Give the backbone structure.
Amino acid sequence: MRSADENAELGVKGRGDVSPVLRSESRNAQHQRMQWATTAVLALFGLLALRLIQLQVFRHDELADRAIRIHTSSETVPARRGAIYDRNGELLACNQTVYTLFADAYHLRDHQIAIRGLAAAEKLSTDEIRAKYTRPLLLRRYRFHLSNVLHEALGLSRADLDRQLQEPARSVVDLAKNLEEDVYQQLNQQFKEQELGGLGFRREIRRFYPSHNRLTHVLGFVDGQNIGKEGIEGKLDDILRGTDGERRVKRDSRGREITAYRTEETVAKDGRDVQLTIDLGFQELVEQSLETAVRRYRPEKICAIWMNPQTGEILALANRPHFDLSTREGNRRNFAIQDLYEPGSTFKIVALGGAMELGLVSPESIMFCHNGQLEEHGYVLTDSHSHHQLTVRDVMAKSSNVGAYKVAQLLGKRRFYDAVNDFGFNRKTRLHLTGEAGGMIKHPDQWSVTSFSRMAIGYEVSITPLQMLNALGVIANGGELLRPRVVGSVGETPTVRMVRSRSLSSRTAKMLTSTLVAVTQPGGTAELAQVPGFTVAGKTGTARKHSEAQKSYLEGHYIVSFMGFLPAENPELMGIVVVDDPDGRTGPVSGGTIAAPIFAEMAQQAVAYLNLRPNTSLHSFARTWN
């Protein structure tokens, strides 16, 4: 190594001996670097300032709107759907708060939630849980734990829970729906105690029917969006549903609602309550009788309608088969107002009513019945028994086809068709229920050579049970065709009695009543329709069943019916029972042997339930009409 002297000799300087020129150059370089750095920083801040000016000044409104859209949303404030009550205030349909249990996929991936839940389950500290499980295993183990808890608490399928919880395909997965308040409270408390996160409840409103197997076709139901689809729920949906409101909701960066900023912009307008004319207690009696009849006669279908003939109010309406309001499983077709049938002899009131109104016959008029067989246009009209001559009263009492047609002939085709319309056929009754059929009766210009004789006895006409009963009401109330009602009031506004037309004079109605009383007296076709203490006026119907597929009448298959009202001298109640294809192995198949006894059973229960006063005399209907 050279010494300092040697270095000096060679002209080499030491580190501490840097020349002034080199030091000056170094300071200049440093100064330039500082200038460049300062310029770069100033340029950066300048760009940031320009960007801020652009955002705050030129794009302020746009960005403010975007922030509002991100953190503020609109929520629907659902209107309360109106309740439905029977005529006595019994609740038939209402709203019930239920809850949906859901899993939040975002929180199911949160390790801290899993650690707390497993620590509570295994009674370990959170540090011990961290040491026990790896991070991937931690989440799997927690989800498996949730599956066990929910399986035990709700009885849900473990396989389904495992599939839904292990790898949720959506951000929110519904695990259980329609949980009632007590179940919700119990689960919510359990989740808090066991520190189970990633689960939540969504409050919802469900339509609830306390008597879910009764009055099903009248009430109808609502769909998943709480919109009425059938029955009263469907027909009066706009009244029951109300109008939803809307509110604005603000959320923080994690999506949580800031309740302090919740505001309502539009107040929801609740739906109005509806009270029906139905009497639920009477309805229950009718449905029980139908169920007994189904077991006894095993028909394809059966229906019963009961009405106040003076007001048009329907007190009970039921069908079998029917459906369950809570599950909607079963037959939702309302036979009483939707299905058309050929009524048979109950339709004979049309010809007799039209002829009596014009003064062509009275109850005591004599009709030649051709000994039970009348041949016309190659077609033979027959009676079940041979009758030479019958009074008009006996034509009805014994249900003579020949006698009824002879009365219709006195009217003629055009006036008979007018009488059909006067009794309300060929058009809907306009009852406040969905799906009502209007019937189908051809105009005389479309009749065949045999149509007149067939229609006079209730064939070649297609009507509903409700239309047939409403026509009977013309006789029972003294001659007025009413619009039947199933709605008693909407909110505080009652519905009113509506007269569609005056179809008969009160005198004609009384004469017809006297003939219908004879039907239920000894020798009539409906002795089994009698109700102790009351005079029953009514008419049987036995019609061969027609097959549209085969375009012919089915041998041995019938639609049988009975309609009647009581007390005959001052009617307060009337009803109809229609039985489609009853089992003939139980005995003779006719309106008098099957439908009339069902009617009588319902009527006997009704007069006791409704506390109707028995009549004291039949003399007013035993007199002779001239």
Remarks:
- The chain has a mean pLDDT of 87.
- Residues 302 and 320 are 5 Å apart (CA to CA).
- The first strand starts at residue 72 and ends at 77.
